[in-house]
Amino acid sequence: MEPTNEIPLLLHLIDEAYTKQAWHGTNLHGSINGLTAQQAAWRPAPTRHNIWEIVVHAAYWKYIVRRRLLGEKKGSFPLKGSNWIKRPLEMTEKAWREDIHLLDEMHRSMCEAIVLLKPSNLNRKPAGSKVSNAFIISGIACHDVYHTGQIQLLKRLMKQ
Q1: Quick one: which of 48, 106, 43, 53 has its CA closest to 84?
Q2: How far apart are CA 155 and CA 157, in angstroms?
Q3: H helices of the chain, where?
Q4: For the chain, what is the mean pLDDT?
Q5: Residue 140: other Cβ atoms inside 10 A
Q6: Residue 2: pLDDT band by 50, 70, 90 thresholds?
Q7: Letter string b/e over residues 79-88, b meaning 16 or more CB atoms within 10 A of that residue's CB
Q8: Cβ(40)–Cβ(55) under 8 Å?
Q9: CATH class, range 3-21+48-158
Q10: Tens digits of per-residue pLDDT, 35-92?
Q11: Domain extents for the chain?
Q12: Model-level pTM greater than 0.85?
């Protein structure tokens, strides 16, 4: 494959894992479609993550990918905390929709950062990373698929 074709392919993989139709089934955005705040806040056990926290976690890692690709400094994620941020602070439909919007926004801004990459930078390791840009980008697609599976399982457990 020519290096100039890798960025569109990586963007396709990311979009397939997030919003586009995929052969593997539901994507991340589809897995939360139609969920209420109460459903998103449900926990299978007191110490387990809920769907809402998974959504914010996914948004956080999209932010990390963008930050690493652009060489930005830490500290600009819109919510306090990192990685796993306790949710909900306020269980309202408005708060749930705001966090879904945050996920959408972090996905959009991450994709914009990927588009800015030169193909020659795909094999470069950004500051603070042990792996290349290409590995980080393909990894975020896998991250979305992984958490989609968790959400789908939580939705089934919720019905029992």
Answers
A1: 53
A2: 6
A3: 6-18, 28-32, 37-41, 51-70, 93-116, 133-158
A4: 92
A5: 22
A6: very low
A7: eeeeeebebb
A8: yes
A9: mainly alpha
A10: 999 999 999 999 999 999 999 999 999 999 999 999 888 878 999 989 999 998 889 9
A11: 3-21+48-158
A12: yes
43 in Cβ contact with 158 (< 8 Å): no
Give the max Cα distance, the chain. Answer: 50
Single-letter amino acid, residue 76: S
CA angle 119, 124, 127 (to 5 degrees): 130
Phi, psi angle pair for 48, to nearest 5°: -95, 155
Distance CA 92, CA 97 (A): 9
In sequence order, which residues have a C-beta less than 8 Å from that of residue 89 and are 6 or more positions away? 95
Q: What is the pLDDT of residue 4?
A: 56
Task: Give the C-alpha distances (Å, rounded to integers) separating 140 from 36, 39, 75.
Answer: 26, 25, 20
Q: Residue 75, by phi and psi: left (phi above 0), alpha (psi -120 to 50) or beta?
A: left
| Tokens 């955005």 -> residue | 29
Contacts of 101 (CB under 8 A, 6+ apart): none
